[in-house]
Amino acid sequence: MRDRFRAGDPAALGEAYDAHAQVLYRYALRVCGDPAAAEDVVSAAFLEAWRCRTRLLPDGGSLRPWLLGIATNILRGTAREARRRDAAFARIADRGVLPDFADEVVTRLSGAERLAAARAALKRLRRRDREVFALVVWAGLDYAAAAEALGIPVGTVRSRLARARDRLRALAETELRTARASRGTRIPEPATASTTAAPAPALPRRTATENPL
């Protein structure tokens, strides 16, 4: 399909959308926390991929790392805009999308506290560490695919992911202590088992006659 996509075959575009749109949507949703914005990211990612299809290398496997790399670039732009709305968003009720930290500290939080601490901690990560974490943990890419998506060496992916996990543990613990201290409650003992992220809502499937863009 890679050759057909590069050659401008509309059927290849539809196949790529069917194969990868859900992954891009779940990834974008967990990064931005807004279903409508996540759908916009998916549409923009496929539009940009189609526009730049001749830049796709002829050799390679799945288009997923390349598409996720495009989505990551789009999310960088939306993040800059979102920072200007942080004060307003802080007053809006949480939407219930829980990221997976794979960390016992976060699993000790109640639903509302967990989401608040997760988002606060993620915002304090460096962008490059946050992007690696999101691609590997949320989008499910292996190290090699994440490296391809970001255009960095595999070793850099490993080091950034390790740094992100370590930093998130410390930040989530700080957020938890701050929240509990403000209410005068104590932090419970660590849980013996961890939980995973709540599944993200599904992106509506494309019909056989619908243009993916």
Structure description:
The structure is a single chain. This protein has 213 residues and is mainly α. It has 2 domains: 1-95, RNA polymerase sigma factor, region 2, helix turn helix motif (Rna Polymerase Sigma Factor, Chain: A, Orthogonal Bundle), CATH 1.10.1740; 98-197, Arc Repressor Mutant, subunit A. The chain contains 10 helices and no strands. The longest helix is centred in the last third of the chain and has 30 residues, at 154-183. The radius of gyration is 18 Å and the shape is elongated.
End-to-end gap = 18 Å
Which percent bin holds the helix content?
55-70%
The biggest beta sheet reads: none
What would CATH call the class of the largest domain?
Answer: Mainly Alpha
Number of strands: 0
Low-confidence stretches: 87-109, 189-198
Level-2 CATH architecture of the largest domain: Orthogonal Bundle
Q: What's the order of the H and E elements?
A: HHHHHHHHHH
Alpha carbon gyration radius: 18 Å
Q: State which percent range the strand residues make up.
A: under 5%
Protein name: RNA polymerase sigma factor
InterPro entries: RNA_pol_sigma-70-like, RNA_pol_sigma-70_dom, RNA_pol_sigma70_r2, RNA_pol_sigma70_r4_t2, RNA_pol_sigma_r2, RNA_pol_sigma_r3/r4-like, WH-like_DNA-bd_sf
Keywords: Sigma factor, Transcription, Transcription regulation
Pfam families: Sigma70_r2, Sigma70_r4_2
Summarize this structure as a short list of keywords or feature phrases.
transcription regulation, 0% strand, 213 residues, mainly alpha, 10 helices, Rna Polymerase Sigma Factor, Chain: A, 2 domains, Arc Repressor Mutant, subunit A, RNA_pol_sigma_r2, elongated, RNA polymerase sigma factor, single chain
